[in-house]
């Protein structure tokens, strides 16, 4: 998939752990982990909004697009 999630980078910058963020955005730690590790197939806008609110960022700070035909380095 050409979409990459960088929640881990923003979490590190904000010094917040997975369990703490999951509690603040009302999502299970397991589901947040799936999203954080680029295993999710979709994300609800309400979840994305909550993540951005808690991390003080924009969606573009945590979501990145790479064309699928690009070779990852």
From TrEMBL:
InterPro entries: Cro/C1-type_HTH, Lambda_DNA-bd_dom_sf. SMART domains: HTH_XRE (SM00530). SUPFAM superfamilies: lambda repressor-like DNA-binding domains. One of its GO terms (molecular function) is DNA binding. Residues 7-62 form the HTH cro/C1-type domain. It comes from the Bacteria. Gene3D superfamilies: lambda repressor-like DNA-binding domains (1.10.260.40). This is Helix-turn-helix domain-containing protein. It comes from Sporofaciens musculi. The lineage of its organism: Bacteria, Bacillati, Bacillota, Clostridia, Lachnospirales.
């Amino acid at each position: 998939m050409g979409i990459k999630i960088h929640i881990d980078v923003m979490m590190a910058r904000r010094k917040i752990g997975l369990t703490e963020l999951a509690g603040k955005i009302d999502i299970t730690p397991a589901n947040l982990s799936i999203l954080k590790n680029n295993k999710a197939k979709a994300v609800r806008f309400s979840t994305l909004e909550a993540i951005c609110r808690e991390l003080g960022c924009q969606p573009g700070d945590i979501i990145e697009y790479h064309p699928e035909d690009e070779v990852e380095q």
